[in-house]
Amino acid sequence: MAFDIAVKRVYEAPEKTDGQRVLIDRIWPRGVAKKDAELTLWLKEIAPSDELRKWFGHDPERWAEFQKRYRAELDRNEAAVTQLRGLLHEGKVTLLYGAHDEAHNNAVALAGYLRTHA
């Protein structure tokens, strides 16, 4: 089954086409009011560990290794992955993140993981 997954910065305005909006960062993004985020769920348990997040530091040179380590964490995080898959079975899910780098972040890595681990 192919999931309908989108990735978007939490700072972008919510849209009706977002489907269910899930924040997947462990830390609440600075400057965003909870009511303005229009979240379905804040699934901080699916975020990379603090140790992995700090090691990565959004360094594009570490991207491949970050994805490998994050996938390993996701493989051990069955409860959070199952919860997110449940939402995906209901329809479109937009994974929200706060990082500035739109190409190298946990939401992009998580979307890739979910697409290959249906």
Radius of gyration: 13 Å
Mean pLDDT: 96
The share of residues in helices is 40-55%
Helix tally equals 5
Largest sheet: 4 strands, parallel
The strand line-up of the biggest sheet is 1-4-2-3
Fold and architecture overview:
- By secondary structure, this protein is α/β, with parallel strands linked by helices.
- It has one domain.
- It contains 5 helices and 4 strands, in the order ββαβαααβα.
- The protein has a 4-stranded parallel sheet with strand order 1-4-2-3, covered by helices on one side.
- The chain is globular and about 35 Å long.
Keywords:
118 residues, alpha/beta, four-stranded parallel β-sheet, globular
Quick overview of this protein structure:
With 118 residues, the chain is α/β, with parallel strands linked by helices. The protein has one domain. It has helices spanning 34-37, 50-56, 63-75, 78-90, 106-116; strands spanning 5-9, 20-23, 41-42, 93-97.
